[in-house]
Amino acid sequence: MENDKINEEETATNNSQYSADNITALEGLEAVRLRPGMYIGSTDEKGLHHLVYEVLDNSIDEHLAGHCSHIVTVINEDNSVSVKDNGRGIPTGMHKKLQKSALEVVMTVLHAGGKFDKQTYQVSGGLHGVGVSCVNALSSMLRAEVHREGQIFTQTYSKGIPTTSVDIIGDTDITGTIITFRPDPTIFTELEYSYETLAKRLRELAYLNKGLHLTLQDMRTSDEKGEHPTETFFSEGGLLEFVQHIDKQNGREVLVDVPVHVRGEQDNVQVEVAFQYNRSYRETLRSYVNNINTVEGGTHVNGFRRAISHVLKKYGESKDLFAKAKVKISSEDFREGLTAVVAVKVPEPQFKGQTKGELGNPEVTSIVSACVRNALEIFLEENPAAAKMLMDKVILAAKARSAASKAREMVQRKNVLTGSGLPGKLADCSSKDPEKSEIYLVEGDSAGGTAKQGRDREFQAILPLRGKILNVEKALEYKIYENEEIKNMFTALGVRIEEKDGERVLNIEKLRYHKIIIMCDADVDGSHIVTLILTFFFRYMRPLIENGYIYIAAPPLYQVKKGKRSIYCWNDADRDQAIASLGGDKTGNVGIQRYKGLGEMNAEQLWETTMDPVSRTLRQATIEDFESADATFSMLMGDEVPPRRAFIEANAKYANVII
């Protein structure tokens, strides 16, 4: 009671001091440094790379305006980045209103730039005018070099504040801008740039901007000749090549060799779409607005899907195909096996947030729909053989969906004989609180038995899985629900797949465990089983991954023992270090046990190495990049062998790490 009284008095005192002096007005770029996530999404690896994209956007906008043909991006030795273009160069003259160089205005003032002047840029990716100034604010060092009007202008900054004036350092016979920046280590949790991540974005931009040369160079490494990794991305076919690249990358067999390619324009909105069908069971759709990847879709995607459903349904009904096949068609049946890229250029796009994840312009829906509808109607009439293959696939998809719906209901319906409907193999925990409960999906009955003995029954449940589950990447959906191990996972977890607005969604409201831990042997077969289970979760229970509920256990590979002392080791380096610390060598002086499987450990060993929350290691499954994850699962678990062989050959050196 006495403490409560003191707290009340402190609160009253604090409230009485709340006045105008407590109001903070952030000036310049201070707001960006205080809340960087509002401007670039995050301060992790994703936000770090977003800085490069913001600078690239400015150069791309110069290309869209017809003034830039080459862009070079360099990762420097110190992990700073330089982006160089041959555009017109940022204006450097005196800004009349602010009485400072236009270069300094662009680099230090939010919402400053040429993107609001439609005579300068009809369309642009850097719409809000905060891109490069945000990069400046979040960089410990930034240097702008402008080649313009026969002279070279430079200015440097630190944390968004100029450290020099705009200086003229020489003459030039070219035009363009070079921005070099080093991300601020006090802002970002990750400072190492990924060559692969940047290469993926530049390749994407090359397809979206045919005729533009984009070069990436990494100065941090070099080969035996002293040459640095360098790639130039260039596309003559644009989206047509992009769609073909996606299916080839995913190892998917196409139905028709040449994709449908659509171009159109209405009310200053430019539309370009390319799409084709393959023999897989999934839709792969990428969408862009002014070169910005709209990962959450939007009105342009809605227009595309509306056109596909409308035209194919109309065509099938005109040929009486659906009635003869005795199937009821759903909009999702028209999207099975569809790979598409939808790109629009909109003068004044309305995005949700600075990170531009979803397009909101309502007028774009009808514009895209009309363009795609006309092109697809012509394609079907001119290619009757291809049209027949396509409609056969739609009918097969409808039949499979109907069968899957029935099979799914059978799995999800509670078993009246068992009451709870829980699988007989499940050794449940006593806790009923999902946040405190965890379930181990264990490879094999033997290891499952050991895990049941070693677990903490209060919060740890065990579900043994017999052998390798079905590879869902290559199976029709209704076959999945016939698999005993998959049925057991559905019922044990308490989740349901439901129909909502014509889409299948996973209902996790009754999820029984908030830690779902995959525990398999530390060998190649165990890694394969982990991949099979992860493929299932990614394809049919992705919200569990997105909410952070999926983990992978890390059982040890070795036990190094000398006398009464023993050390568990998770790789060969750990083993060698343990041998040395115990005073032995690889030939003898110590005992080395190589665990071939979980069943070789007794219950106590399994608990202390792999299941005890105090000492265990869990790897959380996350999705950093959906498109890359989608391509990887398709390539690793799909039908096509060559892409998988190439991946294995390229990554064989990492085998010890993967295992």
TrEMBL record:
One of the entry's Gene Ontology molecular-function terms is: DNA negative supercoiling activity
Q: Which residues form the Toprim domain?
A: 437-556
Query: Can the keyword DNA-binding be found in this entry's annotation?
Result: yes
List positions binding Mg(2+) 1. Answer: E443, D521
Q: Where in the cell is it found?
A: Cytoplasm
The UniProt record gives the binding positions of Mg(2+) 2 as D521, D523
Q: Site Interaction with DNA: give positions.
A: K468, N471
Cofactor: binding details: Binds two Mg(2+) per subunit. The magnesium ions form salt bridges with both the protein and the DNA. Can also accept other divalent metal cations, such as Mn(2+) or Ca(2+).
As cofactor, the record names: Mg(2+); Mn(2+); Ca(2+)
Q: Which PANTHER family match?
A: DNA GYRASE SUBUNIT B, MITOCHONDRIAL, DNA GYRASE/TOPOISOMERASE SUBUNIT B
Q: How does it assemble?
A: Heterotetramer, composed of two GyrA and two GyrB chains. In the heterotetramer, GyrA contains the active site tyrosine that forms a transient covalent intermediate with DNA, while GyrB binds cofactors and catalyzes ATP hydrolysis.
Which HAMAP family does this one have? GyrB
Could you say which protein family the record assigns here?
A: Belongs to the type II topoisomerase GyrB family.
Q: What else is known?
A: Few gyrases are as efficient as E.coli at forming negative supercoils. Not all organisms have 2 type II topoisomerases; in organisms with a single type II topoisomerase this enzyme also has to decatenate newly replicated chromosomes.
Q: Give the protein's function.
A: A type II topoisomerase that negatively supercoils closed circular double-stranded (ds) DNA in an ATP-dependent manner to modulate DNA topology and maintain chromosomes in an underwound state. Negative supercoiling favors strand separation, and DNA replication, transcription, recombination and repair, all of which involve strand separation. Also able to catalyze the interconversion of other topological isomers of dsDNA rings, including catenanes and knotted rings. Type II topoisomerases break and join 2 DNA strands simultaneously in an ATP-dependent manner.
Name the chain's protein: DNA gyrase subunit B
Annotated source species? uncultured Aureispira sp
